[in-house]
């Protein structure tokens, strides 16, 4: 006796009884059709049920139904669809398993040293605002998603971590799922070697990082690198991306030996230049050229005891460059390297203008380097203030000029920003990039 086959057809693919069909909530209609190899099969005698509830059918086409893939219709993650005969006996059944759209979080790797700009300042309450960072709405509850900021020099690459959120393990079996990661304008970046990275559910499930390579300078503006799901026209991840031509800045290091000293200070200018251009100011699209001169000062270190920073700078400036001093500006700096001991103060610099002094380097209890401290002071040269409000343990308050703002009340709050104190400095904030002196 011949055995007749009864199957369901979804998206032109045969589904056998007991199988599971996985789909993203799309709010679109899903057509499901029953087929039998028995030519005498009575389609007009069948009944469709979803989770025990009858599904209306069209008299002219009882062999197929349409279900809207929405939370209003498919109320649970697992939904049983059953076809019954005229005696209410099961002919065939499948499980429809549904999930909401996932989203992804871009982040720098744990090995990040400052090779490129990667800013996620929105982690701080005062910066978690749409006027500071671009946003999306993601997840079931439409949470605000803030976009990190990535900055690459021309032809530079960055390995970026990908964390997937709200993507259940069973979703990898969704045969119709697709995610695209691409830039908002073609020709400026490659993502894993391509203009547009297309991932099916399994590839997306296995994705842990991407490599972004800059191909062309953008100019002063930015563009977006985003992930989206075409089937629901939904963005599920966002990076704001910058790539600019570098501007050259020159730093004259003036090594000072005071009258009561026997040696000049030690600061390797080649090492400093490499640090500034590889792990610091490269993030702000600046190329630092560092050169050196020496000054045998007629002053003794004791001449500066108890004197304010501006006074010390003015004396050294006049001694080296005469009454007129050196030119003001942010294209060329004059930075005096000394062994003058001012306690735990590593240096000081005019903000938004040339001229600074580095004091005796005593090392750092937390592992800061002399190059990091110098980068901090040169940040002041480029017009950047501190990131914290309280200037000292006594609660002295600094004036933070607009468009800048204090990010944390006290120092050490940013964990790794160049304009903070007592941190391992690795990066800048977006508002630093946008507001350096020009």
Which terms summarize this structure?
438 residues, mainly beta, Immunoglobulin-like, Collagenase (Catalytic Domain), 6-stranded mixed β-sheet, 5-stranded mixed β-sheet, 26 strands
Descriptive overview:
It is built from five helices and 26 strands. The protein has 438 residues and is mainly beta. It has three domains: 6-99, Immunoglobulin-like (Sandwich); 103-242, no CATH class; 247-381, Collagenase (Catalytic Domain). A six-stranded mixed sheet has the order 11-14-21-20-16-18. The longest helix has 13 residues, at 309-321. It starts with 5 loop residues before the first strand and ends with a helix.
Radius of gyration over C-alpha positions, nearest whole angstrom? 32 Å
Separation, N- and C-terminal Cα atoms = 88 Å
- What is the total domain count? 3
Count the E strands.
26
Strand content: 25-35%
What's the number of helices?
5
- Structural class, from secondary structure content? mainly beta
Q: What strand order characterises the main sheet?
A: 11-14-21-20-16-18
What coarse outline follows from CA principal-axis ratios? rod-shaped
Fraction of residues in helices? 10-25%
Main sheet characteristics: 6 strands, mixed
Low-confidence stretches: none
Mean pLDDT: 94
